[in-house]
Amino acid sequence: MPKNLDGDLIRTVRESCSLSQAELAQQLGVVPGTVSAWETGRAHPRGAVKRKVRNWLGRVEHGDANDRDDDKTAAHVSNSSANEAGFAESIRRGRIKNAWSQKELAEKLGVTQGTISNWENGKGSPDRSQKNRLQEVLGLREADRVTTGAEKVAQERGEEAGPAAFGTWLNRMRLERGLSVAELASKAGISRPAVYNIESGHIENPRPETVRRLEQALGKELPAETKKEIRAEATVEGVGEFVEFDPNDKNDWPDMSGIYVFYDISERPIYVGQGSNIKRRIQDHEQKFWFKSPIVETAACIEVKDDSLREKIETILIRFLKRNAVINKQNVER
């Protein structure tokens, strides 16, 4: 099975199977624009969608995807199966994003945990009333239903619309324990803006130390499958994990080599930097007039140990930003 999901590979295999972009999109439970974006390199499969693409490529390698049936009835059955598979995956992702276990979702729907497990694994499907209930509880939409503009954008990026899984879990645990944002922040030893940003989804994958402090403050561990899902979404294959942190909290500054980006309150990237130690580099920024909220509201980084590679990535990112590189413009060509 191929390790790298290169756009040219996806296009070549799709064409060898005589599939249109729309047909492949339907098999994978995404919109046609998503496949187009993959093949042109404007986006890449991520998370659960990436696993679907890998599985499809694996089936092609074993000769299963080349078998086509021109019979309309068979095609209808195939399309229905693809829709059901997409709906099954949406149940699993919707549950995780709402920070529920299979047991908790089962209790809300009045079914057994085994039933939820079967739905998520494609071994069964909910009836009409159960689908309606799932839509109410998880906000799911069936494959043939019109999606909103925000959902289409998310789908074309291979993502799901809605709040981040960790933020949803954190908000629910905090409210169950009757804690205010300020109380939780104080108890965990992190800043209040960090809690706000995590719960609102502005920070989706905080540093492991931040997660550990919040778990200790709440007396509850983040479900393992939620951690796994977050890590899968945040990992850039062949490079590393995209981690977010609070730039206005010294205790949250990452002590590692890599590339970092500062974002303002509107989530616009305003500074791209690199260093052999990001924490020390941020110390250099600390006294600058612009280094404060809301100009610098959130930040993200990815570990890159090679000095030459870091410099090249920084240069590329700044040139991509052009005039949007509000502060660091040293490598921008005018």
Task: Set down the secondary structure blueprint.
Elements: H1 7-16, H2 21-28, H3 32-39, H4 47-61, H5 72-97, H6 102-109, H7 113-120, H8 128-138, H9 149-156, H10 165-176, H11 181-188, H12 192-200, H13 208-218, H14 224-234, E1 235-236, E2 240-241, E3 243-245, E4 258-263, E5 269-275, H15 278-285, E6 298-303, H16 307-321
Antiparallel strand pairs: 1-2, 3-6, 4-5, 4-6
Report on this model:
- With 334 residues, this protein is an alpha+beta fold.
- The protein has four domains: 7-61, 434 Repressor (Amino-terminal Domain) (Orthogonal Bundle), CATH 1.10.260.40; 72-142, lambda repressor-like DNA-binding domains (434 Repressor (Amino-terminal Domain), Orthogonal Bundle); 165-233, Orthogonal Bundle (434 Repressor (Amino-terminal Domain)); 253-324, GIY-YIG endonuclease (3-Layer(aba) Sandwich), CATH 3.40.1440.10.
- It is built from 16 helices and six strands.
- It has a four-stranded antiparallel sheet with strand order 3-6-4-5, with helices on both faces. A two-stranded antiparallel ribbon has the order 1-2.
- α6 packs across α7 (113-120).
- The longest helix has 26 residues, at 72-97.
- Residues 65-80 and 142-162 have low confidence and may be disordered.
Keywords:
alpha+beta, 434 Repressor (Amino-terminal Domain), 4 domains, two-stranded antiparallel ribbon, flat
Low-confidence stretches: 65-80, 142-162
The largest beta-sheet arranges its strands as 3-6-4-5
Going by CATH, the architecture of the largest domain would be 3-Layer(aba) Sandwich
CATH topology of the largest domain: GIY-YIG endonuclease
Integer count of domains: 4
Name the helix and strand elements from N-terminus to C-terminus, one letter apiece: HHHHHHHHHHHHHHEEEEEHEH
Strand content: 5-15%
Share of residues in helices: 40-55%
